[in-house]
Each structure stands twice: as structure tokens, then as C-alpha cells.
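Slide 14.
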Amino acid sequence: MTEQPGVRARIIQVEDLEPQQVRTQRHADGSQRSVWDRYFVISRDPSFVSLHTHWEPDVVVHRHGHMGHHVMYVLAGGLWCGDVWCSPGTHIEVPLGAAAGPFIAGPDGVDLFEVTAGEGHSWEADPEGFADLLAERGVTPLPNPPITLPEWMEDRRSDQARFARPTIRETDGPG
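Slide 15: predicted structure.
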């Protein structure tokens, strides 16, 4: 291969990217917590996505896979991937056709660098288990906030608000 005319390296500082709230949920203490993404690259040809993401403390993310080979690298904080604690320096590889999670951000949240070689969309695995986990933790998913994507890319985030279950606070009583 040789260097191609008109193709250049790009250097981007994460601080120069606008964070986008991509998921939000209400926790048992009444607080709202979110996942915030900053996209470095969303490319159609070749299909490729890279981003920095910040999950606020105790955010719960469903078990899922991606429409491409996906990598997560823990930069700061930590998270649970299933029953494995992932601290800074942890590399999580999710090949095309595999799923990982569920994920639960640690008490300090987590910052991740993520890359998908392929289309960046995800697919759900074990939605019933996710609904049970949310209920156990007293977490209510809220509707997806609007996000900005390239004009050619469809927003295919799953509607996790469908997992919201009514809860009865102890002070409310049964009826």
C-alpha cells in the first residue's frame, strides 16, 4: 500500500467533541444518571466507529453485542461486565456474533474508549434478564434522548423505557 492522495490523518481532542446523552435512567434514590458519548469517528466506508464514553455512577447497560468487532478499553473508574470487575487498563473484546454484559458502572462511574470495526449499532441479548436486573436495582430506564448522527445513519437504539416496571415505595403501601 502507498499513501493515498487526499487522505489525511486527523487529530481530535476529546474536549473538542460535544458530549451526547445517549441513555438515561432514574435510580432508586430519585437521581437521573446517564451514558454520555463523544464520537471521534463514525464512518460509512469503511464501516468504523470510535468514541469516548462516560457512564455516570451505577448506570446499568444491557447485555449486548455489536454489528462488528467491538472493543472497550477502561480509561478511568470501573465497571462490572457480568461478574468480572474491570478497572483502568482492562480491555474487553466482543467479536462479531458475541455479546457481553450486563454492565454496571462503578461508584465513580467509568470512562471508556470504544471501537467498532464494522457498523456501530448494537443488538440486545437477554432482555428479560436486563428487565429483572433493573427491577432488582430499582432503576427505571427513561426514553432515549435525541442524538445527532450522520445524515446517512439511522438511530436504532433500543427503547429501554419498555423495561420500566411500576414500583411501590414502602411509604405508599399496597394500594
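Speaker note: The first strand starts at residue 20 and ends at 26.
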